[in-house]
Design a protein that fits this description.
about 150 residues; alpha+beta; 2 domains; three-stranded antiparallel β-sheet; 5 helices; 6 strands; about 45% helix; NrdR-like_N; ATP binding; RNR_NrdR-like; transcription regulation; zinc-finger
Length: about 150
């Protein structure tokens, strides 16, 4: 880290502490050249990919849309808001770790369905019925039959 006062290139860390909210590190540094002290903050850069919609539009990733959809699917089900937020945190990490700068909205929808399938089957069916836009009762029944076959 360069000294902000004399530009010396090799400052030393005197003290490190976790930031107030726990999402950064506060470091007290000292320059061996000019002997002045200064503080730096270090945090993880969170870069989420852009979402490519069905019609080709691109928009920034928005976790509130995922939370909203999952909350609607989990309404009156034994799934807490905290659990939904933790699941969305898992999804965000997965999307960050994939390393892609853009991801298809369909990939996000399928990932949400995979998680809901494991968490609550009723919520899964609710989400799938909206996401997949079943055209008739036969498509809906086909999905239910698949769910029943895989749960045994």
């Amino acid at each position: 880290m360069n000294c902000p006062f004399c530009r010396y290139a090799d400052t030393k860390v005197v003290d490190s502490r976790l930031g107030k909210e726990g999402n950064n590190v506060r470091r007290r540094r000292e320059c061996p050249s000019c002997e002045r002290r200064f503080t730096t903050y270090e945090r993880v850069e969170e870069i989420l990919p852009w979402v490519i919609k069905k019609d080709g539009r691109r928009e920034p990733f928005d976790r509130t849309k995922i939370i909203s959809g999952m909350q609607r699917a989990c309404e009156k089900r034994p799934v807490s808001v905290e659990e939904i937020e933790a699941l969305v945190d898992q999804l965000e990490r997965r999307f960050q770790e994939c390393g892609d700068k853009e991801i298809a909205a369909s990939w996000i929808g399928e990932a949400v369905m995979d998680i809901l399938h494991d968490v609550d089957e009723v919520a899964y069916v609710r989400f799938a019925s909206v996401y997949r836009q079943f055209k008739d009762i036969n498509e809906f029944m086909s999905e239910l039959n698949d769910l029943l076959k895989n749960s045994h």
